[in-house]
Amino acid sequence: GRGSTTIFKVSKDQAQRNAQQLYEQERATQKSHIHMIVIGHVDAGKSTLMGHLLYDTGNVSQRVMHKHEQESKKLGKQSFMYAWVLDETGEERARGITMDVGQSRIETKTKIVTLLDAPGHKDFIPNMISGATQADVALLVVDATRGEFESGFELGGQTREHAILVRSLGVNQLGVVINKLDTVGWSKERFQEIVHKLKSFLKQAGFKESDVSFTPCSGLTGENLTKAAQEPALKAWYEGPNLLEVIEHFKVPERAIDRPLRMSVSDIYKGTGSGFCISGRIETGALCVNDKVLVGASREQAQVKSLSMDELTQTSVFAGDQVSVTLAGIDVNNITVGCIICDPQMPIPVTTRFQCRIIVFNVKVPITMGYPVLLHHQSLIEPAVVCKLTASIHKSTGEVVKKKPRCLGQNSCALVEVETSRPICIERYSDFKELGRIMLRVAGVTIAAGMVTKIR
Ligand code: GDP
């Protein structure tokens, strides 16, 4: 098929220059950064919508778009030309050939929006969960086509599940996109009918009315994406914001740069000269050369010898940056992938037991006391057990349904305690949202996700 396409392939040098440019641009413009996840039922038009939005905001070159157009025409699948923008990115990313420059970022007047796990066509759902654990805001895409909205919403579709999932991971701002409105002649009545149904559901699911917006769109025709309504039938009754404006108006989360340092380590390797290198993401705070830091659960102290980003030397790095750090003063054996580097003045809690509020997905066997899982927390993957079922709670309202339930089945919501055999670094969601979200997996399947509520 499109395997031979090399349009996104750029040289490593070029990729580095691009990354550096983006980085400097971001610093220079002082734009705030948010992470956005796109959710919704399969075929709601998520990929098409985001591909079109990326194109209209200048994040996909005309040359690339032209290529997709030609290829999709050739195969008689022109309606997929925008969706392919995201597919291609996903493939390239999977093959690790290029840095994914541009394709998954939208720049608005005041913001840089990173799309989390851009909805590639196939594996969107499993990816969605890990993406959702990093999301600040979400776009919920629903298909306005008669019958389609209903099957996504009413008949066990994913619309409800996704909305509940992101809410239970702490996402509180939601932009609902009432998509494919071209299929119903831009009907105001249809729009209102869907808004009405979603409103009461979302309220129940714990979203505040003021934090939810509803935007009529067509990802395919591009209507109301980045410009005011053009289509006469829509213009006749809609004067609200377009999708880009909705994104522009999302409230920015607290600037993570102003918080104490937390860096999660995703790789460890021998550096040049003395010391060794770690790489990972600065979750919060900043890190400068010569800083003293505490490493992992052992809380050993180390000193930062040098810093780099995309192989360019830096004197300081900030929250959101993917960095390499050369450390000295610590034995390489005392640092592990998944551990957290933190500020010695404001260290991260270390524990073997914590309470979390989880939502349970597909479990073959209901979760009972002592259930073994793999705890995923940032880059950390650690064997753990669900050691206490504190209460099952109502999925939407959060009210306690039953104290000390004997088991937790599919699609339930609960407060549980998780215990690891080795001490780990973790935060409460209310203190550090970046480090207070977890996933529980069994045999490669995510069975639950949630947020940390108490640390023992
Ligand atoms: P996803 O599974 O949510 O990512 O959905 P896709 O973007 O792959 O779209 C699913 C199907 O709906 C494709 O055939 C698209 O061409 C079609 N589609 C997407 N957006 C629109 C739209 O706004 N209007 C119409 N009529 N069709 C659309």
How are the elements arranged and paired?
Blueprint: H1 12-29, E1 32-39, H2 46-56, H3 62-74, H4 81-95, E2 105-107, E3 111-115, H5 124-132, E4 137-143, H6 148-153, H7 158-168, E5 173-179, H8 188-204, E6 212-216, H9 232-235, H10 243-248, E7 262-270, E8 276-284, E9 286-288, E10 292-295, E11 300-309, E12 312-314, E13 316-318, E14 322-328, E15 340-342, E16 350-360, E17 371-377, E18 380-393, E19 400-403, E20 413-425, E21 437-442, E22 445-455
Parallel strand pairs: 1-3, 1-4, 4-5, 5-6
Antiparallel strand pairs: 2-3, 7-8, 7-15, 8-14, 9-13, 10-11, 10-15, 11-12, 11-14, 16-20, 16-22, 17-18, 17-21, 18-19, 18-20, 21-22
Helix pairs in contact: 2-4, 3-4
Bound molecules: guanosine-5'-diphosphate (GDP).
What does the model show?
It is a single chain. The chain is built from ten helices and 22 strands. 24% of the residues lie in helices and 33% in strands. The N and C termini lie far apart (53 Å). Helix 8 links the parallel strand 5 and strand 6 (212-216). It has helices at residues 12-29, 46-56, 62-74, 81-95, 124-132, 148-153, 158-168, 188-204, 232-235, 243-248; strands spanning 32-39, 105-107, 111-115, 137-143, 173-179, 212-216, 262-270, 276-284, 286-288, 292-295, 300-309, 312-314, 316-318, 322-328, 340-342, 350-360, 371-377, 380-393, 400-403, 413-425, 437-442, 445-455. With 456 residues, the protein is α+β, with helices and mostly antiparallel strands. The strands form four sheets. A six-stranded mixed sheet has the order 2-3-1-4-5-6, with helices on both faces. Residues 1-12, 92-103 and 118-125 have low confidence and may be disordered. The radius of gyration is 23 Å and the shape is globular.
